[in-house]
């Protein structure tokens, strides 16, 4: 999941980047309103963590502009001002959630994950595809009851595929949602991770769940083997 | 203890109206009563005078000094010897009795005027007296008058058929008007008069009492109606508390005397509302300034503790946390210093200070930063020593000099000068830069707490926006002030003036 953190306190911004990255999020950081607007415009992100007191463009004004431009990302506002009016104004301007500083990182993380699920119209934190079970809250994956250990990146990829279960996911979509601007990788890396993930999830299972749609992308789907036409040859 | 004058305006007003009415009513009724009494007594006396005069027509002075008195029976019957009836007496000018009503025969003596009066009174003179006789009050009227005087022949006496006669005084002297004068006394009970007066008094008393009772109720009602606008104003003011400072007292329908009061109240409310909002904003700003570094601190530690890290990573986190904690400390110091200045707890205790040295020391602190930005600093100090409070002067100099260096662009310059102004020998310390300058509209705001100009937030300098607020307050505590001159693009000059 891709996150945009707009926060003018550099130390807080860096801590948030680090914390979220370690949880498998792709994180972009902007330290003022203008930069934040540019990031929000140029790349679709799932959740925006927005500080309300920002230089150049104020947080509330930035929120208004984000909504005016039809950017659909979920927004959680952070503010050090405890005034109820601020909360009400932020929510009325289109914020999805609100957290007062100082906050516990765990709480912010839980709220951001909840917003991610909402972004894909899922309320149940557990996603099931055939005998594959992905718990997006505890970030654990089981196949047929057996826990599968995944790296952060692998998990993030699986989660993204699971959110889109039954739909084709293009490489660009994966790229946009799982990698931030700081990643210096090529789109080739997506294929590599899909390959790694497939090994762990499907392995030698008779019932593969991750399929390749040639020329389109990937799909996480429970398809009977008979109907599956030609498995892609490994590179 | 009973209060004689009540506390409420309404009761007071009602009381005063009532007292005034009472005085008026009592005065009016009393004068009515007195006038009525006088006229009633006068008419009583007049009727007695008329009766006394009627005797003169029944008397004749005969030549030779004797009197001929003929009193008709009809008149005499009024003077029967029954108590409570009327009496008459007739005297000659010397007070000798000439005639007496039958009813008086048993009573030897009534009141009579002094012998002098008998001699000296002129015909027509009267004396009225109220006396007690036979257990009741009677009015006695004494009249001196001239009877008819016989003209030669004697009148026919036989005419008086049944008329009883009283003849007294036979001796005669030369016809002398003086001697012919007689004195008639008529007496009549005053009971009817007093009865009438008593009735009148009762009527007036009852009427007065009823009037005052009505006035009591009326004055309360009048006071209530009259004071209703005040009561309304008071109740609308009463509803205002610290949460509803936005409400205003309505002017409409208020009497013109109360409009200034309502206007003043509204004015005060506006002032209070503004002060409350300012206070709220200050608190909110302070909360923001404290919570932001605190939040950074907590998040950095939390994220760091989520998993095991290398000593290098821990080191980095700790040094970040340290800087955050330091900025919190600076902020706390600033806020406490400002609070102390606000509370007037920081007293200036001026003592001689080497100003040149103090300036040099302050500049030294920022010399490194100036060098990094390649800002030349020139000084021109023409005073050695000044009598100031260094605890207050230092923060001001620190702030002004660090601001100048912070906001200057590389290549600008800063000049610091100090001198004594001519007429009043006030110490002037000027910090001038050739920096970007401040827009005119922002100059006043510079001294607001937590205010950061747009350029400040752009540079991302870690300031809370308290520096100039503190400097201004500290200057004020030293009895001085800070003046600012600035031109966009050309530079700013901050001048501290200490008298």
Notes on the structure:
The complex is a heterodimer of chains A (235) and B (499). With 235 residues, chain A is an alpha/beta fold. Chain A has helices spanning 10-22, 33-42, 59-68, 84-92, 105-119, 152-163, 171-178, 188-201; strands spanning 2-6, 26-30, 47-51, 74-79, 97-100, 126-129, 132-135, 140-143, 146-148, 168-170, 210-213, 217-220. Chain A is 39% helix and 22% strand. In chain A, the strands form three sheets. In chain A, strands 2-1-3-4-5 form a five-stranded parallel sheet, sandwiched between helices. Chain A has a four-stranded antiparallel sheet with strand order 6-7-8-9, covered by helices on one side. In chain A, strand 1, helix 1 (10-22) and strand 2 form a beta-alpha-beta unit. The two termini of chain A are 27 Å apart. Residues 230-235 of chain A have low confidence and may be disordered. Chain B is an alpha+beta fold and 499 residues long. Chain B has twelve helices and 16 strands. The radius of gyration of chain B is 56 Å and the shape is rod-shaped. Mean pLDDT of chain B is 82; it is low at 153-174. Chain B has a five-stranded antiparallel sheet, covered by helices on one side. Chain B has a five-stranded mixed sheet with strand order 11-13-14-16-15, covered by helices on one side. In chain B, strands 7-1-2-8 form a four-stranded mixed sheet, with no helix packed on it. In chain B, helix 1 packs antiparallel against helix 5 and helix 8 (355-372) packs parallel to helix 9. The chains are: A alpha/beta (235), B alpha+beta (499). Chain A binds chain B through residues 8-12, 14-16, 18-19, 22, 31-32, 53, 55-56, 78-83, 100-106, and chain B through 280, 284, 287-300, 302-304, 306-307, 320, 323-324, 457-458, 460.
Would you kindly provide a brief summary of this structure?
The complex is a heterodimer of chains A (235) and B (499). Chain A has 235 residues and is an alpha/beta fold.
